Amino acid sequence: MKLFSNRDLAMVAICLDEEDRLNAKSSMKSSGKRKYWVHDAWKTRDKEGEFATLLPHLLDDETKFYHYFRMPMDTFNRLELKLQKRLAMQDTYFRKTITPRHRLATFLR
């Protein structure tokens, strides 16, 4: 019984990997599915997301704000000011970034 050499095994692995890549590309073309930077579920977050719908109500009620974020509004605002430069990202043509305020709120939650 003859055993395969390391070189033979490497060649088989490379061929199988290439076949997998080609099959993945052809199945994507045939199914019509494409990858997008922003999934459809996130496209409406500015209007329908938790941050957009809940935050205005929390800003009206200091007690609810405190229970939700575990800190007073004043502390949240000061923290946002201190971290704003580090949390800010740049919008691109393809997608809008999450605001520093939204990023901080998500982190604290």
Describe this structure in words.
The chain has helices at about 5-30, 45-50, 50-60, 60-70, 75-85, 100-109. It is an all-alpha fold and about 110 residues long. About 5% of the residues are buried. The model has no long low-confidence stretch (mean pLDDT about 80).
Uncertain parts: none
The pLDDT mean sits at: 81
The first-to-last residue Cα distance is: 63 Å
**Cα-based radius of gyration, to the nearest Å:** 25 Å
Provide a brief overview of the structure.
This protein has 109 residues and is an all-alpha fold.
What brief labels describe this structure?
109 residues, mainly alpha, 6 helices, 67% helix, elongated
Write the layout of secondary structure elements.
Layout (H helix, E strand, L loop, with lengths): L5 H26 L13 H4 L1 H11 L1 H8 L3 H15 L12 H9 L1
